[in-house]
Amino acid sequence: MNILPLSNSIGALVENIDLSTITEGDFHFLYAAFLQHKVLFLRDQSMTPAEHLALGKRFGSLEPVHPFFPHVEDNDQVIIIETSLGNPPGESFWHTDMTWKDVPPKCSILHAQYVPEEGGDTIWCNMAAVWKSLPEDEKAYLRTLKVSHELHAFKGSRYDKEESGGQSYADKVAQQYEPIVRSMVQVHPETQEEVLYINEQYVHSVIGLSPLESDALLSRLFAKAREEQFQIRFSWQANSVAIWDNRITQHYAVTDYGDAARRLHRVTVSG
User: Fold this and answer.
1) Can you give the CATH number for the domain in which 52 is found?
2) Where is the TauD/TfdA-like domain (predicted)?
3) Domain limits at 159?
4) Does 266 participate in catalysis according to the annotation?
5) Whether 251 is catalytic
6) What confidence tens digit (pLDDT) does each residue in 181-228 have?
7) Active-site entry in 37, 52, 95, 265
8) pTM for this structure?
């Protein structure tokens, strides 16, 4: 197994390994690389949904059914992210998966089934590196702040629909999840790195600040995370795999391919 770092900040390409038959010893090295590089990329990985699930279980217990995304026929823990003719992707936002949950996921494993000839890249950002770049006086201030994570981004999306009585399905689901207030700065439970734990899609506001102050602070920090020095961009091919640490990264799907056919399967590991 070869592990080739792709930048100084985040990302590595893993070669000469078959994820469907990975040994315990090789998984040990893969996991160490996962912690070090935050997101791993592999090419030419032919995995069935069952093998995809088995790999996810090596990382931990799996997330239950996602409230919005569809799933493969035989297992509701393998979700489908798909576009097709007449069904283009919706608006994309930088996000860390499911931070509206009390305990967000640990990691995700995304497996490309088929992708457009051009476009459809995904970008990941190292939020520990973003944090390290901030001046010490600002870090001291940010450590005192809390933010509200809320499930509001699916409202009006292609995954929303009108329920009986005219209620939005997204609103109905959101009522099941109270806003989660957590510190803006988190500590990674395994590497002990401090992480600026915010994202554009699910962070609603900074507790204790006025709406204008909150928006201004978050906008400035979000802009910092969009600097290329903290990022890695991956171009998908059929049977490519990305494995990312959801506790220390956020990511962005580039929706520049119209309604060209694109399908990926995702397995998500619980926090």
Assistant:
1) 3.60.130.10
2) 3-268
3) 2-269
4) yes
5) yes
6) 999 999 999 999 999 999 999 999 999 999 999 999 999 999 999 999
7) 95
8) 0.91
